[in-house]
Specification:
alpha+beta, about 20% helix, 5-stranded antiparallel beta sheet, Jelly Rolls, 4-stranded antiparallel beta sheet
Length: about 120
């Protein structure tokens, strides 16, 4: 299997995003996706919660996913679309366990604080 094929397969695994986020937090580097960068602020292995500073480049998207636990997002700068809802700096979004986001993207690029479960499932 070619290295690009391996990368494609690993990007389909939700754990890939968590591992690379943690890798970025410890090593300062991540290859989650070219348009996503993450800095881990806190991680609790007992509750599977991770707090991150996330930057999405202009035109960047996050894959569709289902929330395994409570997700809280506070948008610091830029604009972010979560399905049909457009968020602006200062906006807060709360997603309950079992709910999902079909499309998360930013036309302008954005920075947010995200508290979420490491058990989320990409759909």
């Amino acid at each position: 299997m070619s290295s690009s094929a391996c990368a494609s397969v690993s990007h389909a695994n939700p754990l890939f995003y968590v591992v690379n986020t943690l890798r970025y937090g410890f090593l300062g580097t991540s290859d989650v996706a070219p348009w996503i960068s993450c800095k881990v602020l806190a991680f609790d292995s007992d509750t599977h919660l991770v707090s991150m500073l996330v930057r999405l480049a202009p035109g960047g998207e996050y894959p569709p996913h289902t929330h395994a636990g409570l997700e809280e997002l506070h948008l610091l700068e830029g604009e972010l679309w979560i399905d049909e809802r457009k968020l602006y700096p200062g906006d807060y979004n709360r997603a309950e366990p079992g709910t999902g986001d079909k499309r998360v993207w930013s036309e302008t690029g954005c920075t947010c604080v995200l508290i979420t479960s490491t058990k989320d499932v990409l759909t």
